[in-house]
Amino acid sequence: MLFTSYEFLAFIGILFLLYYVVPKKFQWILLLGASYLFYAMADWSYLVFILVTTVSAYFAACAMEKTYTDQKAYLLLHKSEMNKDERKAFKAVQKKKRWHCLLLILFLNLGILAVLKYTNFAIANLNGILTFTGSTRQLDYLNLLLPMGISFYTFQTLGYLIDVYRGKYPAERNLAKLALFVSFFPQLVQGPISRFDDLSVSLFEEHTLNWQNVSFGLERILWGYFKKLVIADRIVIGVNTIIHNPDQYRGTFVFVGMLFYAFELYCDFTGGIDITIGVAEVMGIRVTENFKRPFFSKCIKEYWNRWHITMGSWFTDYIFYPISVCGPMLKLGKWSRKHLGEQIGKRVSVYLSCIVVWFTTGIWHGASWNFIVWGLGNCVVILISQEFEPLYRLFYQKMEGKGIHLQGNFGWKVFQVTRTVLLMSCLRLFDCYRDVPLTFRMFGTMFTNWNWNNLSGASFLELGLNGWDYLVLILGLLLVFTVSMVQRSGSVRMKIADMPGIIRFGLWYGLFLIVLILGAYGVGFDASQFIYNQF
After folding, report:
1. Which of 182, 339, 371, 525 would suit a FRET pair with 241, their CA atoms being 20 to 30 Å apart?
2. Handedness of CA 385, 387, 388, 390 (dihedral sign)
3. DSSP code of 227?
């Protein structure tokens, strides 16, 4: 069931009504039923996989918590009989039990994800190796299901398990409540990847009808549909025309295509997140924000602190830090400092951890080499930028010595933001063309086949969009930019709420008409699924 379908609008409309009609103690049960119905409407067979993840996580978390309870009770009972070393040894044994339990459940759930998502990718690479070695044998591809949102709910569940393992909070003893956390339907499509201690607070509590929550939530949903239907689903036509015809559209058109894709991806992804957060907000449920004006970032590191925030924090907390401080990595760092010198040695463990994180980030996005190269490309740019930081400081100092204060200068900030947008857009070419050699070739044509004369009015009209479409896109993007600028000083919805009622009505009713009239429907358009559905 797509967020852009009439079925989804009917689904959430009925749910909103029932949510505030049923007794409050049954609200979370209603949400659980609605979430499983939402998932089943995509494909009933998908329920098997999400149930396996949920049930296995439930028993594993309870088993790990039991070791904490047993440990506490045993130490209390034998407090006078055990010395410090014995207590430490006993704790180590209990921790090892938890570790084995965690490993088992990680192997199970990551194994399911790996088999369903990466088997055919592995077969494709094996076939490539066989061809390279001269063999005529080719392995057959498997027709495997890829359940909707499996990457999102798997990572969200694993985050919960790792937190329980670490003792951050106790295991959820109610299997149905854990099932709701795993399957909460607005997040299934494209995130965000919530943490149990954040989402559960409002997900399981009883909610009384609050008109501000309802109005703010509906406004957020409407804003999401505006970005998705008016901008993303319109500009995607131009993007597809360019990237699906690489022989015809080269050079300057590659540049145009990558900027079009940047706008499409931002409005598509943030529009979906707006709908997710808005649906939850109508019911009084707080979902973590996933974006913070990423196109205002002055470097790629800052960009990734603002874009898909929950994914970035997940990889940092559950992959980067554990790898960088694990025993083998600490030993490698010690060896490197001894044999390679302090300056190089202290970077080895950090760089390797970064490479692992960005490799995982890439392959999480898709089972193909273009995503892997995209992830590692981000890693390379970030690491190079970190290495150049002393040079940046020296540059700023020299400029200040000449009376030129770049830091804080508006023009310099514009340059940094523009540079970051262009860098990220270039890296996103791997997402556009989905073929590594082709991506490099098309990137090269921007330098070898650059001709502004190609960008005539007639050539833009050949991309499948007419003059009115471009006018709608320009005005729509200006509106998105204006809202982002206003957000820097606080919530736009709060500012609108302080306006007179007639103005509030005019603004939101006007936006509703814009979505209704100018949304990408009908012949030539397609209210398509969100890009991140595939992940």
Report:
1. 371
2. positive
3. I
Pairwise CA distance, residues 241 & 260, whole Å: 11
> CB–CB of 146/121 below 8 Å?
no
Instruction: With beta carbons less than 8 A apart as the criterion, state whether 191 and 311 touch.
Output: yes
pLDDT tens digit string along 345-381?
Answer: 888 888 999 999 999 999 998 889 999 999 999 999 9
> CA-to-CA distance for 387 and 381, rounded, in angstroms?
10
Residue pair 181/31 in contact by the 8 Å Cβ criterion: no
Q: Supply the pTM of this predicted model.
A: 0.90
d(CA 80, CA 77): 8
CA proximity to 112, closest of 154, 142, 141, 148? 154
| CB within 8 Å of 13: residues ≥ 6 apart | none
| Alpha-carbon span 462 to 253, nearest angstrom | 12
User: Rounded to whole angstroms, what are the CA distances from 401 to 388, 389, 397, 525?
Assistant: 20, 18, 6, 56
Query: d(Cα 486, Cα 480) in Å, to the nearest integer?
Result: 10
CB 520 within 8 A of CB 527: yes
Distance CA 214, CA 423 (A): 39
pLDDT digits (tens, 9 = 90+) for 418-455: 999 999 999 999 999 988 999 999 999 998 887 777 77
pLDDT at 532: 53
| Measured distance CA(464)–CA(244) in Å, rounded | 13
pLDDT of residue 523: 46
Q: Confirm if 374 and 362 have CB atoms less than 8 A apart.
A: yes
Q: How many residues does the chain have?
A: 535
**198 contacts 277 by C-beta, under 8 angstroms:** no
d(CA 361, CA 355): 10
Contacts of residue 170, Cβ cutoff 8 Å, sequence gap at least 6: 65, 68, 164
In this structure, which amino acid lies at residue 359?
F
Query: 407, 396 in Cβ contact below 8 A?
Result: yes
Sequential DSSP letters for 3-26: TTSHHHHHHHHHHHHHHTTS-GGG
* CA–CA distances in Å: residue 77 to residues 31, 96, 124, 177, 395: 43, 21, 58, 33, 64
All residue ranges of the chain with pLDDT < 70 are: 521-535
Our measurement of the distance from residue 237's CA atom to the centroid of its chain's CA atoms, rounded to an integer in Å, reads: 24
The domains of the chain are located at 21-206, 208-287+435-535, 297-426
| DSSP state, residue 86 | H
